[in-house]
């Protein structure tokens, strides 16, 4: 196998996977620019690795693994820094959201932030599983991407979902408790 890419072959792989990868990364990062950057970096790694990556199995699985892992790493890094980026509603959500009631949009954005925060608390493998499944990948695609047996995907997803739910529910309970304390300490006029 050659150590450098044939341009047409690499372009074909790019066209086949880039848009879907950006969609997966966008779900985590909530930023078109960051999602595209993560995916561009994944393709750069692929290009530098050369066609030998193909010998290890599906190039798509390799790309999704690299892109989702980097997305989750960035999410964790942003969380550690305490950064909650503003959602670019025009770029990320489309025309439907411009008609959405501002209160509903605020509540939806808060839920999105809570989900992202909960994902950042999970082990990267579990967060990747959930992200890939909720991005529409089949069990077989997830197995190839995560390099696990297809028969294990359902069980691993169930465990990841249970852990996510436990963290999310705990976060919700703590949030309601802190809201009650704030209300008790600062009664309204």
Please mark out the parts with pLDDT under 50 across 5 or more consecutive residues, or reply none: 83-96, 179-184
Order of helices and strands: HHHHHHHHH
**Strand-pairing-aware structural class:** mainly alpha
Let me know the number of strands.
0
Radius of gyration: 19 Å
Number of domains: 1
Mean pLDDT: 80
Terminus-to-terminus distance: 75 Å
Q: Tell me the helix content.
A: over 70%
Map the helices and strands.
Blueprint: H1 7-29, H2 32-49, H3 59-81, H4 89-93, H5 95-98, H6 102-121, H7 124-134, H8 139-146, H9 150-185
Helix pairs in contact: 1-2, 1-3, 2-3, 3-6, 3-7, 3-8, 6-9, 7-9, 8-9
Structure summarized in a few sentences:
The chain has about 190 residues and is mainly alpha-helical.
What labels describe this entry?
single chain, 189 residues, mainly alpha, 9 helices, 78% helix
Please explain how this structure is put together.
With 189 residues, this protein is mostly helical. The chain has one domain. The chain is 78% helix and 0% strand. It contains nine helices and no strands. It has helices spanning 7-29, 32-49, 59-81, 89-93, 95-98, 102-121, 124-134, 139-146, 150-185. It is globular and about 55 Å long. It starts with 6 loop residues before the first helix and ends with a helix. Mean pLDDT is 80; it is low at 83-96 and 179-184.
